[in-house]
Each structure stands twice: as C-alpha cells, then as structure tokens.
C-alpha cells in the first residue's frame, strides 16, 4: 500500500516535472532572444521609416527570432542628436542617423551633401561597395560603433518658398532657409542666404510663424512633412543627397554569434536596396502629388543647375576641407570616382 502511494506520488511529481520542462521549452526562445533596441527620428509614414520596419522583420526572420528588434521611431526613445552617443554608451543597441547629426563629431559624413555630386540613382546603387563608403565605415568604427546600413532618401532636393520660385543664385540673397549644418550651409551663405539648422517638423512650424522664408528637404519629405501647408512654390533639383545610416554598439554586435551577425548584415544589404527603390518610387510621384496639394512645381534646368553649382560647390568644398583636412580631400576624390 505504501508502495502504491509512492508510485502515485512519483507519477504526480514526474508529471509536474514534465509539464515544467515543456513550459521551459516553449518560453526559452523568447527568454534567450537578444534584445536590439533601435532609435530613429522619422515619422511612421515616412518611406524610410517603413524600410527600417521591414529591415527589423527581416532580421527576426533570418535569425529565427533569436534577435528581437524593437524599433522606436519619431525620436520616441532617444532624441536624434543623442542617438550615436546613446548607442556608444550601451543605452540602446542600434540607431539610424541623418548626415547632419554627425557634423560635429564626424564631419566627413557630410560628403554626400556636396552640391550636385551624387546626382542620379546609378551613383547611389554603387555606394555600398564603394571605397568612399568603406572609408566612412572605418571612421565610424573608430568611434566604437559598427555601421551596418546606408539608407538613402533620394538624390532629389526640394527647395520650398512662398510667392516665387528660388532658382537663380540671386534669388537666395537675404533669404532665411532651412539648414543642414555649417558645412552644407556655407553653400547658401555664398549666395547671400541665412541658413538655420532645423528638422523638417521644426522648419514647417518656423515657416508657418514667419521665422523662415524657405524650406530645404528631400522631395518626398516635402510631401510627407506637409510643406504645402505653409509654402506654395517648390524647386526640384539634384542638389544634395541625404542618408540615414544604421549602426550598432560594437561590443554588443561582436558578442553575437557569427550566424546572427551575418543575418543582420544580409538584412542590411537588402534594406539598402529597398531604400533606393522606395525613394525612387516616392520621389517620382511627389511632384504630381505636390501639385495636387496646390504647390507650383519647377524642375531646375541643366543651365540653372550649372549656375548654382558654380557658386555653391566651391563654397562647400572650402568649408568641408577646413573641417576634415587631408581625409576630406581623399573622400571627395573617392566620391568622384563613383561617378
């Protein structure tokens, strides 16, 4: 009788143990998943924000959920100006930053803002494997970060205004225009404009309040940020190229398995192409959609581009080389070799 009770008790214990084992098997993947918190400043409806979301899903798919990618957009986790510092400090694992966010710490990143340099999609398609990209990746690595993606927003720039188009160099004299940092701003200063650094959201509000006269953004953002609510003219031209580069905390990244590192790189390579495709689709549709919103649209002619380039590029080059020295000269040459 005691033996029977012992057997019953043993069976109950064994059953409980098996149940706990099954539960642990079920929940262990979620518990062991690497958390990858990622910050960016883009609003959710932006086409690059959607590419980043797709990239996150691809990483989780390729790693079979061994990495849990948590995307925090619109500056909801970390302010844009602190993204790189937060990743380096290990507060978060990942972020995407725009060119201008690097100006004070790594001014070489402003190279794609050189006026009329990266002027077509074919150049952007060659960027990932270029010596210029590799040089920048090495410089980023020196800061304790690992660059894993270059997401270009488009090579088409929109200069918005009210009452008239801003096309000729003389049109910019005395104009208060949205800026992208001191190096890029020098191009506009050379034409007599006063550039003020601010994001698209800040610029639209400043235009509304009369604190700015003109906006400067990529053609897709002229639509998504609703510049048409406060401006009625837009000039579209291949002035500068803005990117959001994705990067990771190097210590965290190097601690991953080789398979997971490869998965992140594979997803990032795909995202670079997705970004170009999405940007081209968005940019192609933007002029018509801006017109439908009541804006008058002007596509700059080759002669107009040349007149602007003759003033803007020398001013940019001078400011860029003052900030970057010999490395900057080398980088400009590497970018020209892509063309």
Essential attributes:
4-stranded mixed β-sheet; 339 residues; D-Maltodextrin-Binding Protein, domain 2; 18% strand; alpha/beta; 11 helices; single chain
- Overall pLDDT confidence: 91
**Gyration radius from CA atoms, angstroms:** 25 Å
Give me the strand/helix succession: HEHEHEHHEEEHEHEHEEHHEH
Biggest pleated-sheet summary: 5 strands, mixed
Spans of at least 5 consecutive residues with low confidence:
1-30
Tell me what you see in this structure.
The protein has two domains: 184 residues, 3-Layer(aba) Sandwich (D-Maltodextrin-Binding Protein, domain 2), CATH 3.40.190; 139 residues, 3-Layer(aba) Sandwich (D-Maltodextrin-Binding Protein, domain 2), CATH 3.40.190.170. The N and C termini lie far apart (90 Å). It is globular, with a radius of gyration of 25 Å. It is of the alpha/beta class. 51% of the residues lie in helices and 18% in strands. Helix 6 runs antiparallel to helix 11.
């Amino acid at each position: 009788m005691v033996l029977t009770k012992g057997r019953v008790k043993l069976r109950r214990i064994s059953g409980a143990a098996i149940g706990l084992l099954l539960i642990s098997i079920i929940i262990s993947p979620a518990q062991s998943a690497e958390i990858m918190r990622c910050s960016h400043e883009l609003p959710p409806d932006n086409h690059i924000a959607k590419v980043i979301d797709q990239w996150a899903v691809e990483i989780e798919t390729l790693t079979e959920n061994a990495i849990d990618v948590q995307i925090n957009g619109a500056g909801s986790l970390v302010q844009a100006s602190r993204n790189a510092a937060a990743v380096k400090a290990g507060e978060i694992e990942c972020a995407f930053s725009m060119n201008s966010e690097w100006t004070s710490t790594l001014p070489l990143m402003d190279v794609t803002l050189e006026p009329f340099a990266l002027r077509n999609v074919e150049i952007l398609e060659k960027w990932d494997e270029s010596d210029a990209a590799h040089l920048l990746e090495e410089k980023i690595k020196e800061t304790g970060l690992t660059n894993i993606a270059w997401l270009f927003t488009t090579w088409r720039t929109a200069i918005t205004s009210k009452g008239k188009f801003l096309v000729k160099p003389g049109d910019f004299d005395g104009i208060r225009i949205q800026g992208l940092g001191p190096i890029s701003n020098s191009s506009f200063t050379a034409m007599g404009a006063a550039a003020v650094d601010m994001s698209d959201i800040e610029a639209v509000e400043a235009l509304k309040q009369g604190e700015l006269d003109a906006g400067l953004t990529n053609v897709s953002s002229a639509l998504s940020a609703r510049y048409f609510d406060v401006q009625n003219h837009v000039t579209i031209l291949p002035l500068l190229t803005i990117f959001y580069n994705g990067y990771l905390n190097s210590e965290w990244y190097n601690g991953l398995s080789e398979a997971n590192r490869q998965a992140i790189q594979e997803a990032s390579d795909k995202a670079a192409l997705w970004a170009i495709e999405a940007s081209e689709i968005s940019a192609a549709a933007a002029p018509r959609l801006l017109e439908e919103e009541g804006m008058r649209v002007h596509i700059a002619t080759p002669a107009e581009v040349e007149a602007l380039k003759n003033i803007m590029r020398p001013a940019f080059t001078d400011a860029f080389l003052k900030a970057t020295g010999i490395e900057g000269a080398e980088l400009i040459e590497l970018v020209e070799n892509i063309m």
